[in-house]
Design a protein that fits this description.
This protein has about 270 residues and is an alpha/beta fold. It is built from ten helices and ten strands. The strands form two sheets. The chain has a seven-stranded mixed sheet with strand order 6-2-1-7-8-10-9, covered by helices on one side. The chain has a three-stranded antiparallel sheet with strand order 3-5-4. A hairpin with a 7-residue loop joins strand 4 and strand 5. Helix 5 runs parallel beside helix 6. The protein starts with 7 loop residues before the first helix and ends with a strand. The mean pLDDT is about 90.
Length: about 270
């Protein structure tokens, strides 16, 4: 199947589907992406086209298929130590932490886990034996399963500092050659859970730092306001909030004060 095999009407149906499910606005330029990602699901169910697949989703006759479609239509681009200055600020915030309990950080759109493990490496190096916790959440169960493994191709870990590679990663041998595994002791500090930022969030506890980077660009103005309000609710007073450098909270939230590009603090 190609982008010509989906009608404008069917594409509009999938635009509404992913907006209602995840708050994501798909532009017309994403038509080929929708076709490419859903074609295998159409074939897997023996259907004659996208209209029939959309009907299947709406009827709810195929358990798990709605989540499978959400997994396929959400974008999961990430890599280790993206926007390095944020990790310098994270280190400073952790080093200054004096409150009771563990230092807690939330990677609110963690994708396949690179951001959450980058956070954990910084905290492990900075805090030593002092307790910390990292939570990674995502709407896609598919990428969460990969994140929990902590197992990555070598080409995806090039931005990890060399001292962290040696300290927190295991190099694959034999049939695992060309891969790296995040060390078990570090993986145990990171928990992953399913959460839809466009819906009521599960009870997550409170956080000292929240990362919500390169996510707001997929939302319209009202959805941005709603998502940011939900995500900021568990951030402690004095806590830091990181967004992507191409994003802004202008006219989105007045709950936090900008400290640096893409860096905010909750007063």
């Amino acid at each position: 199947m190609n982008s010509q095999s989906i009608s404008d009407r069917d594409f509009a149906n999938f635009q509404r589907f992913i907006f209602d499910a995840a708050g994501i606005t798909l532009s017309p330029a994403k038509k080929a992406l929708v076709c490419g990602r859903l074609a295998k699901r159409v074939s897997a169910h023996g259907l004659d086209g996208y209209a029939a697949y959309f009907s299947l989703l709406k009827k709810g006759d195929a358990p798990g298929e709605v989540q499978a479609a959400i997994d396929l239509l959400t974008t999961n681009e990430t890599y280790f130590f993206r926007e390095p200055k944020h990790f310098e600020l994270l280190r400073a915030a952790a080093a200054a932490h004096t409150g009771p309990g563990p230092f807690r950080v939330w990677s609110a759109a963690s994708s396949s886990g690179e951001e959450a493990y980058s956070i954990a490496m910084v905290l492990a190096d900075c805090l030593g034996e002092r307790p910390f916790e990292v939570l990674g959440t995502d709407i896609s169960t598919r990428v969460l399963a990969r994140a929990r493994l902590g197992h990555y191709p070598e080409q995806r870990v090039r931005q990890i500092p060399q001292n962290y590679l040696k300290k927190y990663c295991l190099k694959g041998m034999g049939d695992q050659q060309g891969t790296l595994l995040v060390d078990r002791s570090l993986r145990q500090k990171v928990r992953f859970a399913h959460a839809n930022l466009n819906d009521r969030l599960p009870e997550l506890g409170s956080f000292d730092v929240v990362f919500l980077r390169n996510v707001l660009i997929y939302f319209n103005a009202e959805t941005k306001r709603q998502v940011v309000a939900r995500v900021l609710a568990p951030l402690k007073r004095g806590g830091f909030f990181f967004i992507g450098h191409s994003e802004s909270l202008n006219e989105v939230s007045s709950e936090v004060v900008q400290m640096a590009p893409a860096v905010y603090r909750k007063p």
